[in-house]
């Protein structure tokens, strides 16, 4: 009987401690869950328009990553901030522009790729843009063979010279597609070569071919280039930096108005002077021309 009584007592004690442990565990778990929920709620809190205006409002600007080789946009950003604007500047691959615009990740997008800008407009993702500056293309080659682009193309066909296009520069490929519609280039051997514009120019030097390069890169790398300028300064070779502003659809009017204001400030005399003189001190000549 004593053994049986002791066993019952031990069993009761085990049940008691198990219940206590379960209660402690449940209390701990509920506290952890409460903490997680509070954190999630804070992450999900969205400020009202009034709160956004009172806070340090900033404009999110995405610039084509291919343009990151120069500090022009950092200098423009600094000039805008000195005028009281809050700017978040990031570089992005141009193929990501559509996704960034659709998700509302940015309000302003800048690229020299007319084909991309035209596509975004046709899809009504970013319906309009303005020109910030011009970075015209030059046709480089072993020699100058015509007084203008049309006569140069005719000479290249007759001489059976190749024209190299850089696979990584769709703005140049797009420009050549436009030129094909303007002049007879059917018999001209056009070859797309892997690499960016500068690497393709170097290959053209080796092969005696012709290639396009924009003005900024030409003067930045002039000491490395052995090809001569075959054609430059023609309107058909114009290459603009396009500023696109994402429409608000009534949901982000504050940011859209801010983007419009920033674009107007970019066209101000002070920033225009900054852009038109950029590179002169370092390269001996400005790298960009002001857009129309």
Produce a short descriptive summary.
The protein is an alpha/beta fold. Helix content is 49%, strand content 18%. A six-stranded mixed beta sheet has the order 2-1-3-10-4-11, sandwiched between helices. The chain has a five-stranded mixed beta sheet with strand order 7-6-8-5-9, with helices on both faces.
Can you walk me through this structure?
By secondary structure, the protein is an alpha/beta fold. The protein has two domains: 59-134 and 238-290, Periplasmic binding protein-like II (D-Maltodextrin-Binding Protein, domain 2), CATH 3.40.190; 136-237, 3-Layer(aba) Sandwich (D-Maltodextrin-Binding Protein, domain 2), CATH 3.40.190.10. It is 49% helix and 18% strand. The protein contains twelve helices and eleven strands. The chain has a six-stranded mixed β-sheet, with helices on both faces. Strands 7-6-8-5-9 form a five-stranded mixed β-sheet, with helices on both faces. The protein is globular. The protein starts with a helix and ends with a strand. Residues 1-56 have low confidence and may be disordered.
Task: Offer a few descriptive terms.
alpha/beta, D-Maltodextrin-Binding Protein, domain 2, 2 domains, six-stranded mixed sheet, five-stranded mixed sheet, 12 helices, 18% strand
Write the layout of secondary structure elements.
Elements: H1 2-44, H2 49-54, E1 59-64, H3 72-82, E2 87-92, H4 97-102, E3 108-111, H5 114-122, E4 129-134, E5 137-141, H6 149-159, E6 162-166, H7 170-182, E7 189-193, H8 197-207, E8 210-214, H9 215-220, E9 228-231, E10 240-245, H10 253-266, H11 269-277, H12 280-283, E11 289-290
